[in-house]
Amino acid sequence: MNLAPAQLSEHLQRGLKSLYTLHGDEPLLLQEFADALRAHARQHGYTERTVHSVAGAHFDWSEVLASGGSLSLFADKQIVEIRIPSGKPGKDGSVALQQIAERSQGDDSTLTLLLLPRLDSATSKGAWFGALESFGVTVKFDPIERRVLPQWIAQRLQLQGQRVAAGEEGQRTLQFFADRVEGNLLAAHQEIQKLGLLYPVKSNGGDASDGILGFDQVENAVLNVARYDVFKLSEAVLAGQALRVARMLDGLQSEGESEVLVHWALSEDIRSLKRVKDALQAGRPMPMALRENRVWGAKEKLFERVLPHISDSTLANLLHAAHKVDGIVKGLKQPDWPADGWQALHRLAGLLCHQCAAPAQAPRTSRGVGGDARG
Fold this sequence. Notes:
10% strand; disordered C terminus
């Protein structure tokens, strides 16, 4: 059984299950969900708790299996928590987890809680995970997308009695906040808590302005704790978000990311655009062309939006530019291009971003790319 994180309260009203598997790459959301489960379980008599952290290929699963069948003299219900940081239980663990899943049926004395990171497609299709889904409740925690991050921040502020000003100022404040914490939800949570300490809401309700945060207050208080990855950079470039792209490149550079990896991500998008464009011109339907070229998820819609409005000559020039930047990040010099690798990456990302920015307009000629790409 799959459960969305937002459905927890409604789910618990129908009763606690015996087996829960939480997986995803948002530690904050996963931890909060687990805390809520534990709190609800304690209220219903699950007073004992054991925690097992699976580490290494030779982990002894016999203790985990035994803990599920034994209770102390001082408790009649228990929580057995299994943490697998790698997401790979191994051969013995796979067998053990299937046994645990099957044994959970009808067991009202033990609540088994598994905590896992984000799982790849192959792992989520394994027999052990299938058993956990079949016999228990699985909850997946996806990252908070950038477009909904301001709303998420506003909701979190509201929980502690705070809010931003109405109108344009408030939207500007939330956007600024989101820029500072993008990709780092745990830090966002900490910054929100800090605002609660710095500007506490009066207990008696105060006046109408009590709890309203101005832009200056947020700007002075919130640290720049954003974290970026090259895959999110790729989505921002294809969406034509030039300012965000520049900010992400600066962030990746300050975090010590490899120039070669960033170049690979940008050039791979250009190559994929060219391959899909060629497939479309050969008569392939868009869904088939995207699938054959392994374009999935968020990039599908971005490709569908961009491809009809980007010319063959533009793509050829972008490929030529990517080839030049490949040399620059490896230490070679190119005429009319920056010698610094990160500056060259900014320029390449800007060229692609410009072509993706407004596909609703008439198709662009290659002139905007050609001058930079040909050097």
